[in-house]
Amino acid sequence: MSLSTSSWKVFWSSNMSKIGVVLLILYIGISVYVVVFYPLDFGTRFWNNPSYWADNPREAPPEWTAFFTTSSPPRHMVFRLEKPSEYTVTRFRYSYPGFPSFVSLTVSGVTYSSRPPTLLFELVRPDGKVVPFYVLSVSRPLPGEQPPYKRHYETPLRVFVSGDPDASSFVSRFLRNEYGLEVAPDEVLRTGVERYIFGEFVNGELVPLTGDYVLAVTVSKADEMDTVDEVKVVFGGRVYGVLGTDRLGRDLATGLLFGFPVSLLVGFVTASLTTAIGSLLGMFSGYIGGKTDTIIQRTCDILNNIPLLPLLIFFTFILRPSIWIIIAILVAFGWSGLAIIVRNIVMQAKTAQFVESAESIGVPRGRILRRYIFPQIAPFLIAQLIFSTPSAILAEAALSFLGLGDPSLPSWGQILEYAFRSGGVNLGLWWWVLPPGALIALLSFTFVMLSMGLEPVVSPRLRRMI
């Protein structure tokens, strides 16, 4: 049986090793999925772009929390009407005991040749009443502009109906015509446009009106060739997605998914480079000795006495925050401890009889280091590589938690930092705080399990005990 096969059998015989390997494969699989299917500029293009998340409810808990409550909070509803005709309807059922959190609409891709089209949005309620809640008029041609006129192709036109004065005027008129109530538009805005649209008066109080609704969109066009590419109407929910949203309405599940490859990138790259540099310099220091040993060891003493976290904060503060700057600093100041340990191992290994025999017959130093010294420290280096990975991940998370992470790459530490800065902890928004902390802890636990599984491989004494 070869040495590698024997070492693998010892490693795999531990339950901790099996747990660590399964978790690591899971983390790597998720990271590969994100890298393949997510755009590389996701952080700057989407995550840090508030307009991209404008149609999501803010600070909404996950949808599955509804199973643990006595009432069923309204779900998030999005209706997309592709190429709407002159009169387009969409039917849906509203059976929730609460009101939507907001109402918004978006129009994109409008083309017309003479008079700009108008769009009327109405809601036919279960009680038969029709609520015209918004009329959207496309902007007129500019002086000197030639037909066909194109509007809202690059940037769709979004209207936050719940906070729009025109919408409140329509609803105020509806209340006067249907119920004989004089409710000022300002009062409609304060109470909530969505509450009047989806509510009915019972004993003088607004309560949700459940049943079958019809969303109707009427497009008034001066020319049959005029087109509207898409109309989107959103009735905001009180719950959202798998892991909820933050204060900006960002889908936390999406941000946490992108944090997988970021954390593994920092951990693997930093651990690999520090292990490679520390092992090489440690081998040279221990085997060559002399001035080389003195220079390397004094450098290690200096680096070991420099506090790393304040240094990381200093450099990321004066330089542009970047994931590569963080990795470079961690590597530059993280190899010294390993170099000292490898030096001591090499100094013992070079006194072995087979090493002295190789030296006596004139074997080059490079070959001795490669063929006789390195195999003796290789198991220790593998264990060190795995054990140092979570340290780099935690260092990046700590910097991000302090607000010094790379803003172009959403990470678990940044999500935690924004949760604390925005008062998510004080408000009890647990879905914003617990998942990123749990993922950081679980990833560190994975490498701890792998390290503990490697201990019998590295230490023969532990191997005899299991």
From TrEMBL:
GO terms for biological process: transmembrane transport. The chain crosses the membrane at residues 21-40, 256-281, 302-319, 325-346, 377-402, 429-454. The lineage of its organism: Archaea, Nitrososphaerota, Candidatus Caldarchaeales, Candidatus Caldarchaeaceae, Candidatus Caldarchaeum. Belongs to the binding-protein-dependent transport system permease family. It is a multi-pass membrane protein. InterPro entries: MetI-like, MetI-like_sf. It comes from Caldiarchaeum subterraneum. Keywords: Membrane, Transmembrane, Transmembrane helix, Transport. It comes from the Archaea. One of its GO terms (cellular component) is plasma membrane. It is found in: Cell membrane; Membrane. The keyword Membrane applies. Pfam families: BPD_transp_1. Residues 260-451 form the ABC transmembrane type-1 domain. This is ABC transporter permease.
